[in-house]
Amino acid sequence: MLTSIAAWLNVPTGAFQIDQRTIKFLVGAIATTLGLFTYLNAPSITSISASFYVYKNGGEPWSTTIFIGFLFAITALMLGYNGERRIEAILCRVAAVAAACVALFPCKCEDECTGLARAVECHKEIAPGVHGAAALVMFLILAWFCYNFFWRAWHKRHALAKARAAVYAACGLSITVSMCILALDHLLGRAPGNHLLFPRNLTFIGETTGLLAFGISWLLASHVFPLLILPQERHKLGMPNPGGDRERRRTRTAAMCRPDAVPRGLARVPTPRHGGATIPDTCASDDDAAFRARLLTTFQAEASQHVKELLATLTALAGTSAEEHSAMLGIAYRAAHSLTGAARCVELADLAQGCAKVEFVLRQLTQSERGTTSAQLQQLFADIDALSAMVQVLSGPKESHDD
Predict the structure, then answer these.
(1) Rounded Cα distance, 181 and 396, in Å
(2) 262-288 confidence digits (pLDDT tens)
(3) What SS3 state is found at 173?
(4) Residue pair 193/110 in contact by the 8 Å Cβ criterion
(5) Over the stretch 144-193, which tens digit does the pLDDT of each residue have?
(6) Mean pLDDT for the chain?
(7) What do you get for the CA distance between the two ends of the chain, in Å?
(8) SS3 content of the chain, % helix, strand, coil (to 5)
(9) Are 369 and 354 in contact (CB under 8 A)?
(10) Are the beta carbons of 91 and 141 closer than 8 angstroms?
(11) What is the full DSSP assignment across 275-307?
(12) Can you tell me the distance from the alpha carbon of 314 to that of 43, in angstroms, rounded to the nearest whole number?
């Protein structure tokens, strides 16, 4: 028993690291619970920021600890998030610094000084204006990320992505409106604790609304939960199984090294074997990294053309006659079939599996006399979007189809 546990613990994890989606999940989970936990431990405060002083004024330490600890956790995680473009990496660093400033430079909490609850006493700001400015910058950047997620999801073709886009837009709008109301309330207030238009605990409501919207958008963008996510888009948290991966890779290589496993149209390596038959590069030149890089570059160019052909053909299906409809499905099926064989030959197992799924669906449609439904087309577009993202990765870091 102990030997088995020791062997399991010593299995190498390979290149497994906390990726961008896992960071989104962790940040979202922290943001959605920050307001709730501070309130449960100090229900009389009128702003989340006021929890900084609860322990200092003789209260329980949990609210203060949660406030500072959660903000620094968000800071650390956002420093490690790069996104898909340089502007995302830059804005994440700025938001991380702003979150740290919110924790390090507390507000005066003037509302608490004049309130009946007297949860905390008045305190002089360490650096006047830094807390409010940092909070505003942080929330504005978080609203920008909501709209960034919105446009990525909106440009996808399936209905679930459109629904996610609507959630992202609502979250971004909630953050923006909350910050505007808090700014208006601050400008109209004649004295600390005296707000002309809104209730005394408005700051807490606005901060909590902004944090909840921020957290929900990042949780949804992590693709961890099955809500509004296609199965092929799902991101599963957990450790990989390197041993099983190696075994599956070994099995695939043995199968693909057969001379008859090389599809037509793919470049072959002229390696004499069994009477002059040729085999794919993955079998003949496993250690030739440069050759494989050239092969993958060629494959990427051809695969991109097949993906474009698939999208163009399926997009043009609407309004065609039955005969034209069948012919165009045949064209799409042959493109998917070629892409499946080519992906298998260069040992891109995930891509080959996705291509085989699209090929199977298209073959079923070509044999059916019922025509193609809107739901089937939406699913095909989603699957092809995923294939396109995998093909793009082969030629280097490009903008993915992730939210």
Answers:
(1) 44
(2) 444 444 433 333 333 333 433 433 345
(3) helix
(4) yes
(5) 999 999 998 988 878 888 899 999 999 999 999 999 988 887 777 644 44
(6) 76
(7) 43
(8) 65, 0, 35
(9) no
(10) yes
(11) TT--B-HHHH-TT-HHHHHHHHHHHHHHHHHHH
(12) 57
Task: Check pLDDT > 70 for residue 206.
Answer: yes
Instruction: Give the three-state DSSP class for 369.
Output: coil
Helix (H) or strand (E) holding 209: helix 202-221
Residue position matching structure tokens 């901060």 = 207
Q: What is the mean pLDDT of residues 305-316?
A: 87
Mean pLDDT of 282-303: 66
**pLDDT at position 212 over 90:** yes
Q: Are 345 and 338 in contact (CB under 8 A)?
A: no
The single-letter code of the amino acid at 287 is: D
CA distance 262 to 282: 11
* Two tokens, residue 154: 């909106």
Cα distance between residue 327 and residue 313, in whole Å: 10
Amino acid at 53: Y
Q: What one-character-per-residue DSSP string does 226-243 give?
A: STT--GGG----S---HH
Kindly report the pTM of this predicted structure.
0.59
**242 has pLDDT over 80:** no
Q: How many CA atoms lie within 13 A of 13 on its CB side?
A: 8
Q: Can you read off the two tokens belonging to residue 328? A: 């165009």
Residue 102 near residue 71 (C-beta atoms within 8 A): yes
Instruction: Count the neighbouring beta carbons within 10 Å of the beta carbon of residue 385.
Output: 20
Report the alpha-carbon distance of residue 258 to residue 368 in Å, rounded: 33
Which residues have CB under 8 Å from 313's CB, separation 6+? 328, 329, 331, 332, 335
Helix axes 159-188, 202-221, angle to 10 degrees: 160
Q: How far is CA 257 from the centre of its chain?
A: 36
Q: Other CB atoms closer than 10 Å to residue 277's CB: what's the count? A: 13
What confidence score (pLDDT) does residue 258 get? 43
